[in-house]
Amino acid sequence: MPYSVASFIPPALAAGVKPGPVPAESFSFDAERFELENNVYKLFGGANGPAVAYFQDSTLAGQYIEYQPDNQLARVEGQARLKYLPEETSGGKAAGQGKDPVPLMVAADSAVADMRAGRILARGGTQRVRIDYGEVTALSQEATLFTGERRLVLVGQPEVRSGGDLLTAGEITLFLDDGRVVGQGGVHLTIIQEKSQEKSPGKSEKSKEKSGRDRSGSS
Fold first, then answer.
1. Domain 5-214 has CATH 2.60.450.10
2. CB 81 within 8 A of CB 62
3. E strand spans, the chain
4. Phi then psi dihedrals of residue 131, to 5 deg
5. C-beta atoms surrounding 166 within 10 Å
6. pTM for the predicted model, two decimal places
7. Quick check: 145 and 129 in contact, CB under 8 A?
8. What does R_g of the chain's alpha carbons equal in angstroms?
9. Backbone phi, then psi, for 206, in 5-degree steps?
10. Gap between the Cα atoms of 199 and 192, Å rounded
11. Which of 66, 67, 101, 110 could form an SS bridge with 95, CB 3.0 to 4.6 Å?
């Protein structure tokens, strides 16, 4: 059964709810059970839902989350979910040319987030990683998000769908700021062009008028 993002995302993650502003090097969390060992935070989900960790521009969820604040490294196991929603782009404007930023949603088996390096790696297992970003849906065995560059790299049978269009390649890169998509290695692109619904009736009416004139002239 393919991943269904809405089926797995906890209410806090789906709504983007945060307890409050989170400083760049801080985080907050919700969990069924919590352990702290050697300055490593261990968060466990349960029957009431997964563990959820909130960072400055991203939210992580899963059955188990381990966070090392010394090197700002988070590891998520078991139905890993990511919501990435930067408040501003590197150019200082909100994503989407002044419009409200679009969240990037990721569903995977596991994920490793290196907050200091600005890199989040999501891995699939029996099912591929699923990414939803606006009208774009993508699948791959691995997906790496570079938050500083706002660039998403997909490898391992990647495919990207937008509307009816489908792109497959050995590697696909999505640039979140300007919407560019770059495929490399064995690229195959299928483009679905919608037929215009306005021209057909006009042509039909003209055809009828011409047919009527022809019949009138022949009588």
1. yes
2. yes
3. 28-30, 33-37, 40-44, 51-54, 58-62, 64-68, 73-84, 104-114, 119-123, 129-133, 136-140, 142-146, 151-155, 159-162, 165-168, 171-175, 181-184, 188-190
4. -125, 135
5. 14
6. 0.73
7. no
8. 24
9. -65, -40
10. 18
11. 101
What tens-digit pLDDT sequence spans the chain (219 residues)?
A: 333 333 334 444 545 544 444 444 578 999 999 999 999 999 999 998 999 999 888 999 999 999 999 999 999 999 999 999 865 444 434 344 456 778 999 999 999 999 999 999 999 998 999 999 999 999 999 999 999 999 999 999 999 999 889 999 999 999 998 889 999 999 999 988 766 555 545 554 444 444 444 444 544
State both tokens at 180. 């560019």
Q: pLDDT value at position 96?
A: 44
In the structure encoding, which two tokens stand for residue 127, read together?
A: 């099912």
Amino acid at 125: G
Q: Which of 176, 200, 181 is nearest to 191 (CA)?
A: 181
